[in-house]
Structure formats: structure tokens, C-alpha cells
Sequence to fold (269 residues):
Amino acid sequence: MKIQGVPITHPDKILFPEIGLSKIEMINYYKRVAKYMIPYLKNRPLTLHRFPDGVNKQGFYQKNAADYFPDFIKTVQIKTEEGENTQIVCNNKKSLVYLANQGTIGFHIWLSRTDKLHKPDKVVFDLDPSKDSFKKLKEGVKIIKAFMAKQGKECNVMTSGKKGIHIWYRIRRTTTFEDLRPKIKQYAEELEKSHPEIFTTAIRKNKRNGKIFIDYLRNSYAQTSVCPYSLRPTKNAGIAMPLSWSELDDIPASDHFYVKNIDKRLKFK
Fold:
């Protein structure tokens, strides 16, 4: 069996036992969602979250491109503190199918692109609720949207596919991560100060006291954020789903969208 010219191995292997989702079903999801997902993946270094034996077994993160990857998988050389490594880039449907066939469930992208690795084109706040109160989380998201609008930033919103929500905005590629980060930290601290009953920037979970953690730390060189439309290694194969602001009011949880209920949402054929 081949999809996009890629030989599919062990297509019937069950990767999500709780919902009976097989490897071939996951690959077909990525094949169908590629037209939505590739624009977010294109020309960005990737970290793969792989679960070759399914989500009930130990998975692992992979940053470096494997020696056995075929030539059509693009790569980029990344400078690190230790030297260099070769990271994966996914620019087309064939590459997406190939990586899914490797047991990749989650795709995590850099906030910068390969031609300007040190200069991000987006800023992401990952909102992590300490308690499972989605109503409070949505309230926090709207506060941040209004706050950022006063800074002249037009924000987008996405469910994480797990418990949280990501709110993000685009920026021009003129500033390095290092120069940008103090401003992003300042935004997070101002939100915490103005709404201390809702937000916290405390990294340690036992210091959050039931508040929403504003994770701004991923706005750094070589850090990643889950790619829109990526699956997550949850029981029901949750999806990191971009939303319109009106849709946010209608959904009951951040993992509302998952692989079994997505066809109508994305108008799959």
C-alpha cells in the first residue's frame, strides 16, 4: 500500500486504543488535512513527537533528521550550543505522509523560518489552566486579546488539543528572539499584575494556585509550539484547532475537536 507514493508500513496497527484509531486512519487524516496544515509547517524546523507503538506506549521527541530519511524530506542545519544538528522541514503532503508513517502523532514547529532562524515571525502565548475550568480559560483568552489589541496586535486563537489554548499574533521578521523576549515577558507580567486573580507567570505548578499560567517562554530560539491541525497523543486523538473568535464561545473544552469529529468542521470529502 502506498499513499502519495510513500509505502505504508503496518497500516492496521492501532495507535489510539481507546477509540480504535489505526495507523492508516491517522495517515489518512494527515493526508486530508495537509492543505490546511502545510502553510503552518512550511519552511520551519520541526520536532516530531513519535509513538511508533501507539499512545499507550512510551513515545519520544525527535529533532534530528534520521540518516534513513529519503531525499525528498527537506532539512536545515541548526547551530546549537553544542555545535550543529540537522533538523526536519515538512513542505509538502508527501513529506507529511512519510513522517506520519514513522509514527509521528504530534508536529511541533519553530516560531521562525529557515531563512531567518533567529528572527521569529510570530509570538505565542500558551495558556495552561491549573484547574480544568474552560470557562475561566476562555475569559482569560478574551482579556489577552483585548490587552494585545491595545498594543496594536491582532491575535489568533487555537485550542491545544489538550487542556490549554494558544493565542498568537504575527510580527515582522526584524527582531531577534533575544531582543524580543523582554517585551513578551513584560506583556505577560502586566497581564498578571492587572488580573492577579486569573493569571500567573509562575513556572512551578505548585505556585500557580489554580490560576492560568501564561507561558511566554517558548518565544525563544529553537523552542517550538504545536502546529495547527496537529494531532495530540491523547486518548481521543485531540487536534490543535485554529478557531474564529466566535467559535471560541461555542466549544465546551480545548479537546473538543478530535480525529473522529473533524470531518464536518473541515469539510473533508
